[in-house]
Every structure is written in structure tokens, then in C-alpha cells.
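Run: sequence + flavin-adenine dinucleotide -> complex structure.
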Amino acid sequence: MSGGGPIDTIEHDVLVIGAGGAGLRAAIAASAAGVSVGVVCKSLLGKAHTVMAEGGVAAALANVDDRDSWTVHFADTMRGGQHLNDPRMAELHAREAPERVRELEAWGALFDRTKDGRILQRNFGGHRYPRLAHVGDRTGLEMIRTLQDHGIHAGITFHMECTVTRLLTDGGRVVGAFGYERERGRFRVYRAGAVVLATGGIGRAYSITSNSWEYTGDGQALAYEAGAELIDMEFVQFHPTGMVWPPSVRGILVTEGVRGEGGILLNKDGRRFMFDDIPPAYQNQTADNEDEGWRYTQGDKGARRPPELLTRDHVARCINREIKAGRGSPHGGVFLDIAWIKQRIKNAPEHIKKKLPGMYHQFMELAGVDITQEPMEVGPTTHYMMGGVRVDAESQMSTVPGLYAAGECAAGLHGANRLGGNSLSDLLVFGKRAGDDAARFAREQGRVRTVAPAQVDAAAREALAPFDRTPAGDGNNPYQVQHTLQGMMQDLVGIVRTKQEMERALEGLAALRAREARVAVTGNREYNPGWHTALDLSSLLCVSEAVTRSALARTESRGAHFREDHPEKDVALGHVRHVVKRGPDGAMQLERAPVTPPSPELLRIIEEQR
Ligand SMILES: Cc1cc2nc3c(=O)[nH]c(=O)nc-3n(C[C@H](O)[C@H](O)[C@H](O)COP(=O)(O)OP(=O)(O)OC[C@H]3O[C@@H](n4cnc5c(N)ncnc54)[C@H](O)[C@@H]3O)c2cc1C
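>> structure
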């Protein structure tokens, strides 16, 4: 059965769910290993989140500063993640990122160039040296274009505009997926030897976010439902600079590249407040005057970084503090000023337009602000999920055989806070690793002959349930439930957290679960966005609960997780990570697990780079 009509079954050795950078890189790797590969995605090819990436991809190519190396990149990543990172993942990432970027170039990516023709690299928060390979502020577009072209020529099959709602299992192993075509509402079964999740983030669980409509935490929830473990879910990154005005564009990202090019943060009194609070761990790497900070952004190797380029968690909290203290801008943000550089360089407006063309257009078109002449208004926005599916560092296999995860929906590399630019490199390095191993696994294990019909029937019934219910006012309208959830997560489990508020959030989540079970939609399965929203709710509620439970359990402040009732670090919790999984009774369980310590060699590198 299927609630009407036969269900198409599609077979691949490796099925990749997600067509962002991680999914495409995984698919290319698996395809290169000679197995058949299918990629399924919610939207059209080329529309994944990765396309929005602006600032660049971090890789220690040492083209602009020859003091850079994988060891410095590794130590920066560990420091940024407050040492909750998986050290082996941080090592592999730093070692392999340069090769992955050069490979992208060989496949046709046109990066900005140094004067002598090498890939240009720019400064970014938390990176000691200029490290981000970039294409103006449209790096993600170039990356997606290149990977897509390469993937299509490799013979990968793409299944666009199809949402996966369930993973299918056989004897504890993942053997496929169930989904629906978004346009026509028809169901599909994918049968595969191995499945790679590459579904991106969870930003849509919050009301102010830089993420697009696709990022509802599906991969994390699919993995959880299939029995996999999720880790580090308390670590949600609030990017310091999103647009705040007009309301229709609130949350849209303002790239860190603006600060990398010399942009400064000011409160309403014109004070450069970032100089007021420099964390001890960064004191000896941070400029102590404005002139030194400016020289750093212009490539002076003797200068230290301006405080605007401290890690995102810290900058976001400083901005939050200014706003709460009544020193913010008229629309509830602070000022980000790049126009001031006309005091330092000739032709500043042309320079800004050349370096930050996307930002210039974004503010001109959406806010009527000319960033070459006046400051922008910015404030924190939910941006990136450090937590996600627990994976093996070498292979990216989850704790469930046959199920892999890579990119933003996986976890481990970034620990308590991700450095800007480290996501695009993460996608390339671990996307490839996931694809390599998924191909090996699929070859060795083969595909199962049939998927249990009962699983398919259950998935179909679950997907159709909202049509069987009667709409009854706003109480069971999917948009209302989603809106309430987003507002609640923003207010109660946002940038500053307390026990009381998070306990209220847990009660609220239980109430929303009950409402989700009554959510009703009208119309039929074709072109029905209300139905799509109803189906997204289950993932959003799952990841929101995992975030809230993990954040409640972390009774300290570390990285992106800030507890007003526990503002200090707890040394003991610096060695502990939270693991979330489905308990035997179906309820969400949270456990503590030790963080893997670095090997003696990695420890030596960390000490040397302090
Ligand atoms: C505005 C912006 C700027 C950024 N700039 C940078 C930057 O400069 N440098 C950097 O390193 N990082 C940056 N990031 C972060 C980075 O872009 C993302 O973390 C990264 O692109 C995520 O890639 P991914 O491959 O994991 O997933 P995504 O690119 O998010 O792709 C996810 C894919 O999964 C599909 N999908 C999701 N759910 C399902 C489902 N249920 N069924 C089927 N398909 C599904 C989607 O359709 C999509 O194809 C930025 C993020 C934003 C929002």
C-alpha cells in the first residue's frame, strides 16, 4: 500500500541525501570508486545552503603568509572549539584541506589570485594567518558550480525536489530511504548498500537565522530515529553579524569577510567596544590598538588581529551585551562600519565593491544602505550547528552500520565553536572520506534484496496522517506550530541560556509534540507547502529537544554555549561531551562520554602553538 498508487523503487550502491558541498563531494568520491551513486535533495541542484557561503574555504596553503601550516590550522581549530573537538578529525581536516582546495581548482574553480597568480587567502576570525581561499564573497557559488559540473560528468544520478522522511533498516543496518516528491507528492523508496547523510543544519528551529527553508535538521533526526547517536547538540553557533533591518531580511548573513577587510564594530556612542573584552586565551594574539588591528587586515605580518576577528561566540556575546545595555543601534543591533577605511586608503568605495560585491548589493537592494558610505546595522543570527551525527573520524560512519554523515549534519570537528571557513573545508575533506568508505561498505555488503514492506507502509501512513485529521483553527495549523517553536527556541534556548528558561522550553516542546500529533492539512498531495511544513515538524522538534537537553546538562559556559547561571568554564566538563540517543522506551536519552584526548604528537603541537 502507499495511501494510493504504486511506489517507485530506485536502486543505487550509495545513496547520498543532500546536494550541498558535503553531499556532492561524497558522491564524487563514491562514483570514482566505481559504484552507482544517487543524490537526492529537497530543492533543485545548485540551491543547497553551500551556495550561500560567502567568506571562503579555510586551508593552510600558506600562499599569503608562509608561516602558515597544517599544524597552525589544527591548533587554531582546537582552540576555537575549546578543545572539545575530536582531535583526529581536526588533524585530518587541517592536513587534507589544502589538497582538497587544489583539487577543486584543478576541476575548474576560479579563486581570487595573488599578484603572482596563486590562490589568494583572506583573514577570518580565529585563524592566525590569512587562510581563506575565496572568490570575492561568493565562494560557495563557485564551489557548488565546480562540484556539480564534476559530479554530472562523473555520471551521478540526481533526484531533485524529493524529501526523505525515513531511513529504512534491515537487521540493524541502514539499507535505504523513504521519501516523497515535493511537486507531485508521490512516494519513493531508495534501496542502497550504504547511505550518506549530508543534509546540513538546523537553523530553521530558530526565528532569526541565516539559514534557508531547507535546514530543518532532517539528517540529524533521520539518524536519531534509525538508532544513531547525536553529539554536542548544545553547541549552536550564533553568527555575530546578521542583518537586523528591515524586518523582512532579519537574520540574513553579513559575512565575516567585512571584518576581515577592515570593518569595525561600533556602539551607538561610536565606541569600538570589542577592545573592551579580549579573552585571556587570545590576549597575546590580539592587537591592543586600532592602528595595529588595521595593519593586520592589510597583511602586515608584524601586526596582531583586531578584536573584531576574535571567535564568533565571543564577538556575538559582546554585541549582545551592548544591545542589552541599551548601547545598540536604532533597530536593535550595533554598527558594522567598512566605509571608515576611506580614512586609510584611496579609492575606498571601489575597493569595497571589489572585495565585497555581494555585501554591497545585499545592503543596497534590501536595506537601501550604501556600505561604501555608511555603516550597516547588524546583530547575532542563528547560523551553524556544531553538533550532529556522531561519526568515526576516518570513515565518517555513524554508530549504525551502513549509515554515514558528512558536513554540517555530522559532528566532532568543530567542538564547542566552529571557525569561519572551516565548514567549506570540512565538506570537502570529510565528504570525500564518507564517499570513499560508503563505496567500500556498499561493495562489501551489497544491497538487500527487499526492504520490509511493513517499514514502507508505516512510513507512508506517517506521511499521510496530516490529511486524515480535521483542521480546527490555529491549534493544529502546521505554520502556527512551526512559528511557536521558532519563537520559543529563540527566546528560551538562544544565545544566553538559563536553567529555568530551558526547563520551560522542554515543557513547551512536549506541548508542541502533542500539537504536532494533531496537525492537519487540507488539499491534496500535489504542490502542497502546508503538508511539507507539517512533515518538517518532526525533525525540528527532535533537534530542538536534543539541543535543549544537552544545553541543560552543560552547567557551564563554553564556546557557543553561554549559561547566564553558570558563566564560567567547569574544568571537568571540558573533558566531557553529551551524547543523545533514542532510549528503549522511545524517549530521548542523554549520556556523558569522555572527549577523546589528543595523541602525544598533537598535544605537543597544541602546546607549541599556544
Ligand atoms: C549565508 C551563509 C554563509 C556562509 N559562509 C560560509 C563561509 O564563507 N565559509 C564556510 O566555511 N562556511 C560558511 N557557511 C556555512 C556553510 O555554508 C554550511 O555549513 C555548509 O554549506 C553546509 O554544507 P552541507 O553540504 O553540509 O549542507 P548544505 O549545503 O546545507 O546542503 C544540504 C542538502 O541536503 C538536502 N536535504 C536536507 N534535508 C533533506 C531531506 N530530508 N531529504 C532530501 N534532501 C535533504 C538539501 O536540499 C541540500 O541539498 C555559511 C552559511 C551561510 C548560511
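>> summary
The first strand starts at residue 8 and ends at 17. The mean pLDDT is 95.
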